């Protein structure tokens, strides 16, 4: 199914990469203005192209739409299989939207090697879109890893003081995690092959035949290591504050808004329906870690002196909410988790944008360097408070709806979860507001060096784009929830049926335990 | 006696590639007397032409019936390997010409010895008899001894060559000892003969097991598996850089060709005995190579240890003992030819006569001075590290998949672990190039035409095998299939 015979998903995914390649080949690296405009043009074109999706989306259809499928490596059952459903459509839009804003945000921020920088951003976009669309595990893994390399360069080349350390840390954490995920994918592939005789990486086929619970256990751990590093879940989160602090502004935005979502998306798309028994078994642990992350992240936020680091830790806290919603394992929680992914992309992305703006002017991100900024920069201050309210889940903003659904889901799962998580909301609100009070309120005192000017037209446009969504989602959440309704309901029932199917398998000897070769198998070799 | 002759099956069409290559090498040997020192590059271009002419012949020489009294088996397997050897020889010679001039070692023997080394490899790949195998191996090894030592005025070159020669001779002796035991036990040196006798036995003879162990040690030296690797870093460092590249690709591929053929064709009945030994060798080689490479300061030495680690991964493909695993080795070697020779091409280009360019720290900030070089080197290093979408990833993927499929979970986990460790040193160079200020900016040469050809071709090979590996994997599986029937 494609739009008017055009493979729309492939077009959206590869347009940025193609544009980046053309920019590299045909624009002189001295012509920075031309490069910026070309990159902006490519990203806007991609965004406009992706807007076709919500208009041609069939909200009542829970399964994949605009499916493209082509044989890739037949012998191993690998295919080029792209598709988008209610779970991923908003993430795709978020990615194309955020990339446009990232390029706008880098306009004056980046002064060296502009060509390479813009190209890397567009490559990151292609790879991230690929992750959200790929339905073949092998293809998924390739896109997954492809996200990593441009991002490492963005941090390592254009980053702050400790960029090298942060880039290496980010690289190692995510790469090691994804290698374990690869082992999990291979184990899934072969066990599914042995169980059914069909060797394939096609996730829709794998979904129909869940493995025995004992196997799911190990594969879940392998997947967990891959996904949780990206989310990041406690205790695998330590790369995040460093990466965020040292990344250039747009790097932080794309990292928070898009890259972290790859992890949570992985859990929703693959861990839940493929490994339902293990998911249930692990759910209390996952929820425990998530709630701990919510509280711990918020607690650490209180101690931060650097605004960017503060946002990074609040990001850990927010992602804990997303994970809590997902592992509540009911429709409310999942919807809340999915919506909260988008919200986090908007709010945290916007916060990083705003911090980047002040840093560009004053070259300082220390909270102690500023007081009473509101008097000097009223426009900037207004945007900041709106985004902070959105981030802490104030009613009428997007964050409120997301957190409400997550808490509903958590409440349904267990009252204690909801109570603990709600106290996290409070703590998060406290630290963000406290930061606002210290930086923006009071008498104007400024210890930085650069001149403080209020926002330029370009900056206002970038910030307004975020604010529009803050209120649009906050006031009319139905429009956005409608996209995911059918798919989430379908997912929840899929988890249920697969859970039962796998339980039925437990008694049979069809599949050996993962630990080693059983005696029976040794003889038949 | 025509009937006896018929039984020998003196079918010269099975050795056409070897015959042509010998002729080319001898022509170059003779021409060397008439070419002035400044013009030795002509010999290089002629060698390239000769090698290119042999490639289609080698690719088409497929005649699985044993010829020359069962000595030669020119099957698809040997054709596949011959093409790998020839391609890597072409790349090596192409990057050598400028290097020889730069280092002021314009010697004609360099080119024909490279061709003779290639010839030795080709003889090994199609050898179906230990005698023939040994002749090929020594032809290759002796050519390499001289090639490594060709920078006679350089102490490191002489030291490396001496180590390589002494240990190489020792390993050949051990291999020969093993072959002697195999012969003493079975009364034949033919691989097919040994296989048929071995399969008839109810209990295995200790002598044949001893032979097996000695042969593993002999081959272990050639592929530089831990703990038989100690010659390789010194030899690589001392050798001219293109020779180091050729040594790590061609020589390793040839050793794996005989490794696979001997163990799958001659000792299949002993699979249970050699598999545990190879398990340990594979695991130790992967981990050792990756760990020691981290502390290297010289880029060639670093790649030598990386090459050791890669041999460990390929051993994993051998010991799983099925068509996917063995085809995985063939595919891996093909990809390795592209990515490793590509990396060596950049290093060859970058290195100066006074040795600058050989230290890792010399690569600091290379991206700012020469973005294209840095891009190529980064691509090859990422591929060597096994990061998609490069060939290095698909190659590792197929072998890991084969290991998991055969339920060698722990070995696969060790393989993944060693990949993680290896990431440190590959990434280090990339970080140096892109994220550090320039340290060594003077007199950087420009990229010559021969380098561009090699770099573009190796880069295309690295990327295509990463994005669309199916046709290459299919060929590898097709040529390996008869071994498992």
Write the layout of secondary structure elements.
The complex is a heterodimer of chains A (525) and B (485).
Chain A: H1 8-26, H2 32-50, H3 52-56, E1 65-73, E2 78-84, H4 89-105, H5 114-133, H6 137-158, H7 163-196, H8 203-208, H9 213-230, H10 239-246, H11 249-274, H12 276-302, H13 307-327, H14 331-362, E3 370-371, H15 373-376, H16 378-391, H17 398-413, H18 415-440, E4 445-446, H19 457-475, H20 477-506, H21 519-524
Antiparallel strand pairs in A: 1-2, 3-4
Helix pairs in contact in A: 1-2, 1-5, 2-4, 2-5, 4-5, 4-11, 4-14, 5-6, 5-11, 6-7, 6-11, 7-9, 7-10, 9-11, 9-12, 10-11, 10-13, 11-13, 11-14, 12-13, 12-18, 13-14, 13-17, 13-18, 14-16, 14-17, 14-19, 14-20, 16-18, 16-19, 17-18, 17-19, 19-20
Chain B: H1 2-8, H2 16-32, H3 41-60, E1 63-67, E2 72-74, H4 76-102, H5 109-126, H6 130-148, H7 155-186, H8 191-200, H9 206-223, H10 231-238, H11 241-266, H12 271-294, H13 299-319, H14 323-350, H15 366-369, H16 371-385, H17 391-405, H18 409-435, H19 449-467, H20 470-480
Helix pairs in contact in B: 2-3, 2-5, 3-4, 4-5, 4-11, 4-14, 4-19, 5-6, 5-11, 6-7, 6-11, 7-9, 7-10, 9-11, 10-11, 10-13, 11-13, 11-14, 12-13, 12-18, 13-14, 13-17, 13-18, 14-16, 14-17, 14-19, 14-20, 16-18, 17-18, 17-19
Helix count of chain A, per DSSP?
Answer: 21
Q: Rg of chain B, please?
A: 21 Å
Q: Radius of gyration of chain A from the CA trace? A: 23 Å
Q: How large a portion of the residues of chain B is in β-strands, by DSSP E?
A: under 5%
Order of helices and strands of chain B: HHHEEHHHHHHHHHHHHHHHHH
Kindly report the spatial arrangement of strands forming the biggest sheet of chain A: 1-2
Q: What sort of overall outline of chain A do the alpha carbons produce when their principal axes are compared?
A: globular
> Helical residue percent of chain B?
over 70%
Largest beta sheet of chain B: what is the strand line-up? 1-2
Total helical elements of chain B = 20
């Amino acid at each position: 199914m494609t739009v008017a015979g055009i493979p729309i998903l492939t077009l959206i995914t590869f347009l940025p990469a193609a544009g980046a390649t053309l920019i590299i080949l045909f624009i002189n690296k001295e012509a920075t203005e031309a490069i910026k405009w070309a990159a902006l043009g490519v990203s806007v074109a991609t965004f406009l192209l992706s807007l076709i999706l919500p208009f041609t989306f069939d909200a009542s259809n829970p399964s994949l739409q605009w499916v493209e499928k082509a044989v890739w490596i037949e012998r191993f059952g690998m295919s080029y299989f792209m598709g988008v459903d209610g779970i991923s459509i908003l993430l795709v839009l978020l990615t194309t939207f955020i990339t446009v804003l990232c390029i706008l945000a880098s306009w004056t921020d980046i002064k060296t090697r502009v060509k390479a920088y813009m190209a890397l951003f567009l490559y990151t976009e292609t790879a991230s879109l690929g992750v959200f669309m790929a339905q073949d595990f092998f293809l998924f893994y390739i896109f997954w890893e492809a996200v990593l390399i441009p991002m490492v360069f963005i941090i390592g080349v254009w980053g702050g003081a400790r960029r090298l350390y942060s880039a290496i840390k980010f690289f190692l954490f995510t790469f090691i995690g994804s290698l374990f995920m690869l082992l999990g994918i291979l184990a899934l592939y072969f066990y599914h092959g042995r169980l059914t005789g069909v060797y394939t990486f096609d996730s829709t086929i794998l979904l129909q035949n869940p493995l025995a619970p004992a196997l799911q256990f190990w594969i879940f751990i392998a997947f967990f290591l891959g996904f949780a590093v990206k989310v990041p879940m406690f205790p695998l989160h330590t790369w995040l504050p460093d990466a965020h602090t040292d990344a250039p502004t747009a790097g932080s935005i794309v990292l928070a808004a898009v890259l972290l979502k790859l992890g949570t998306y992985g859990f929703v798309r693959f861990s839940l329906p493929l490994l339902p028994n293990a998911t249930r078994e692990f759910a209390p642990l996952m929820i425990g870690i998530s709630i701990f992350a919510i509280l711990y992240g918020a607690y650490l936020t209180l101690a931060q002196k650097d605004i960017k680091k503060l946002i990074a830790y609040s990001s850990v806290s927010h992602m804990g909410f997303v994970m809590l919603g997902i592992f509540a394992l009911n429709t409310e929680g999942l919807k809340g988790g999915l919506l909260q992914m988008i919200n986090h992309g908007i709010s945290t992305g916007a916060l990083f944008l705003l911090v980047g703006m002040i840093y560009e002017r004053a070259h300082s991100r220390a909270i102690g360097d500023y007081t009473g900024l509101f008097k000097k920069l009223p426009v900037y201050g207004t945007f900041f408070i709106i985004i902070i309210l959105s981030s802490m889940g104030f009613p009428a903003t997007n964050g409120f709806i997301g957190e409400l659904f997550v808490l509903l889901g958590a409440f349904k799962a267990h009252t204690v979860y909801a109570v603990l998580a709600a106290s996290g909301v409070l703590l998060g609100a406290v630290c963000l507001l406290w930061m606002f009070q210290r930086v923006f309120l009071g008498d104007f005192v400024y210890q930085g060096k650069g001149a403080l000017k209020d926002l330029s037209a370009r900056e206002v446009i970038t910030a307004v784009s975020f604010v529009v969504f803050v209120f649009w989602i906050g006031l009319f959440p139905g429009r956005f929830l409608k996209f995911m309704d059918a798919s989430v309901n379908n997912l929840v029932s899929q988890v249920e049926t697969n859970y039962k199917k796998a339980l039925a398998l437990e008694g049979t000897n069809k599949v050996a335990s993962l630990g080693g070769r059983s005696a029976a198998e040794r003889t038949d070799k | 006696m025509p009937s006896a002759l018929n039984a020998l099956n003196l079918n010269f069409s099975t050795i056409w590639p070897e015959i042509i290559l010998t002729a080319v090498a001898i022509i170059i040997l003779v021409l060397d007397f008439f070419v002035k020192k400044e013009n030795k590059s002509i010999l290089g271009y002629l060698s390239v032409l000769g090698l290119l002419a042999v490639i289609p012949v080698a690719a088409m020489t497929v005649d699985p019936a044993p010829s020359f009294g069962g000595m030669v088996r020119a099957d698809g397997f040997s054709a596949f390997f011959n093409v790998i050897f020839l391609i890597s020889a072409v790349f090596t010679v192409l990057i050598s010409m400028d290097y020889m001039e730069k280092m002021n070692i314009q010697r004609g023997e360099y080119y024909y010895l490279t061709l003779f080394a290639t010839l030795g490899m080709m003889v090994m790949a199609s050898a179906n008899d230990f005698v023939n195998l040994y002749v090929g191996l020594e032809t290759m090894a002796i050519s390499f001894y001289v090639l490594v030592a060709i920078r006679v005025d350089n102490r490191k070159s002489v030291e490396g060559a001496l180590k390589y020669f002494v240990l190489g001779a020792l390993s050949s002796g051990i291999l020969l000892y093993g072959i002697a035991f195999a012969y003493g036990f079975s009364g034949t040196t033919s691989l097919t003969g040994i296989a048929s006798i071995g399969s008839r036995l109810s209990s295995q003879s200790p002598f044949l097991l001893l032979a097996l162990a000695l042969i593993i040690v002999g081959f272990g030296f050639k592929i530089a598996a831990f703990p038989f690797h100690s010659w390789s870093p010194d030899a690589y460092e001392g050798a001219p850089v293109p020779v180091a590249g050729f040594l790590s690709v061609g020589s390793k591929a040839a050793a794996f060709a005989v490794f696979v053929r001997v163990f799958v064709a001659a000792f299949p009945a002993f699979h249970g005995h050699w598999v545990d030994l190879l398990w340990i060798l594979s695991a130790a080689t992967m981990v050792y190579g990756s760990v020691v490479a981290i502390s290297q300061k010289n880029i060639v030495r670093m790649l030598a240890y990386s090459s050791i680690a890669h041999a460990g991964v390929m051993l994993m493909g051998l010991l799983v003992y099925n068509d996917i695993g063995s085809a995985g080795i063939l595919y891996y070697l093909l990809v390795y030819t592209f990515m490793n020779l590509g990396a060596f091409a950049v290093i060859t280009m970058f290195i100066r006569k006074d040795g600058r360019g050989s230290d890792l720290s010399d690569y600091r900030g290379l991206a700012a001075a020469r973005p294209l070089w840095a891009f190529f080197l980064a691509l090859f290093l990422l591929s060597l590290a096994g990061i998609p979408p490069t060939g290095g990833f698909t190659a590792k993927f197929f072998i890991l998949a084969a290991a998991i499929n055969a339920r060698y979970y722990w070995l696969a986990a060790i393989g993944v672990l060693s990949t993680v460790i290896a990431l440190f040193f590959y990434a280090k160079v990339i970080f140096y190039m892109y994220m550090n200020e320039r340290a060594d900016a003077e007199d950087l040469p420009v990229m010559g035409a021969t380098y561009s050809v090699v770099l573009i071709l190796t880069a295309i090979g690295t990327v295509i095998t990463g994005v669309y590996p199916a046709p290459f994997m299919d060929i590898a599986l097709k040529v390996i299939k008869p071994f498992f029937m």
